[in-house]
């Protein structure tokens, strides 16, 4: 059993609070990804789980054991670091064997297990090389093999793909996901890359300023962000935000802002009426073209091949962005009509950013 | 955009080549002059070591010995007092190199190894646990700014007076560190420790924390981490530091002169004793010893050149 329970975890460094009372339940065999911007406390949380940092307060339970006072090596964890932390003076074989050698596993057993771990990540041919003679992708696999070889129940990963180029990163994502399936172990993975989180996680924990903003499946996070921060953090390009108010007349709900009037679904709660809100709408839900009533002026187009991003001004300080077909004829300076797909609009409180609808 | 110039591309190229050649010549002239300036005393020392007494101080100077002789070397390498028939100088019998060489090798090596051992662990503690606070690493080096003579006199008082007096009072036995191997090793270890800490800090700081974290997560204890991960990665640095400290000890004069005599004698102290009542300073044997002192340093340097380059470039870790 490798369920991880975190209760009211706090970590302070002097006057600075890195992790501010988070609680989390990681299921056995789950691929959980902690995601957030730099300094949000995700790596500190991971380091507390691993035992490399001591919590200021709170409790960490792995399996059925409270591990707060256990040494890192006694927690039954494997960890892959951002810089991979391969020992540069040891061969790939000795790197992988290190954990077994420390535990004084007999030589024959070490050889067998190292070979098996190397085979699991396809690096059998590298065993005699030094890490500096391995490419980025190969080093990544060595780090994985070194973690696999001790059969940990929990894998901790601290931005392990951040040093790879885009293509290799995509390949490794698929591999990691496959590895998770094969091993059936619990993975806790830290990244600031929302695309990595979306593609690999069973559940995502979004953190900001030492607190958890939202826990949910990738689609829950994307489709129903709990706060304006989460809505803005996930999705490329960033969600469009417009400040305004909601009016309720009869059964109809309308969002009003200077230069924008947008009907909203009836499901928007009536209590929202009259409050300052922020309307959030993703670029793919901004519709351009005939029939749209709102007016704007194209500032910039970004052709991405499979689609084009159109940035346009609507008379307010912040511009809006829409995703359109790559065949669009819009050019900077062209007038444009737009509207939002009302069903996909999100409403957030203008003050604290919590989700209203 | 256009480039306006009155020169053709060929002329511009010729001008560039001319400037480059002039630069190369000036550079080489300066370097040669500097090399000559640095190397002259060494040349003069080696040359004098092969000269007979009459040629040591002459005018005009003999740049090279007119009658080369190995007598100076025979004198310093003599195993016993020289036979009167071979010895032309009254004072030369006493000055053979062997005792001083043995003492110097033993004291300098032991002190350098001890300083390296303590210094490496202290540097690790400072690097990893910030022992002594933020500015401690700088404070350590300022200790070396104290003039050696200040230390020498204080230590002499301890070695020759206070420690014997205290030991006699407490235990009834007079223990003195003056003129002992232990005394000299101790003072050399202490005085070179700041250098070791300073140098080893640079190397240990280069070892990424995550390597130690990775080892600890795999179950390694602190000592295993140091022994199997940190030390192998700073081995080049340790070699460089050892060499540096060994040479410092090897060339040290003032402390050895103050704290020893006549039981323990290092080469630098011996060098100072080459004086005879009849002939004044004995430049020939002195030059021969000077040459002998320099040779081990040069050999060590050549042998560990690879480590020196690696160590001084501070690029010991390749991630």
From the structure above, extract its key features.
heterodimer, A: 357 residues, alpha+beta, Rossmann fold, 2 domains, 20 strands, B: 319 residues, mainly alpha, MetI-like fold, two-stranded antiparallel sheet
Q: What is the strand and helix layout of this fold?
A:
The complex is a heterodimer of chains A (357) and B (319).
Chain A lengths: L3 E10 L2 E11 L4 E5 L6 H9 L6 E6 L2 E2 L10 E4 L11 H11 L4 H14 L15 H13 L5 E5 L7 H18 L2 E6 L2 H7 L2 E6 L2 E6 L1 H6 L4 H6 L6 E10 L2 E6 L2 E5 L11 E6 L4 E3 L5 E10 L4 E6 L6 E5 L10 E6 L5 E4 L8
Parallel strand pairs in A: 3-8, 3-9, 6-7, 7-8
Antiparallel strand pairs in A: 1-2, 1-4, 4-5, 9-10, 11-12, 11-14, 12-13, 14-20, 15-19, 16-17, 16-19, 17-18
Helix pairs in contact in A: 2-3, 2-4, 3-4
Chain B lengths: L8 H41 L3 H4 L14 H6 L21 H32 L6 H7 L5 H24 L9 H26 L2 H9 L4 H12 L1 H17 L2 H6 L7 H6 L2 E2 L3 E2 L1 H21 L1 H8 L7
Antiparallel strand pairs in B: 1-2
Helix pairs in contact in B: 1-13, 4-7, 4-10, 5-7, 7-10, 8-9, 10-14
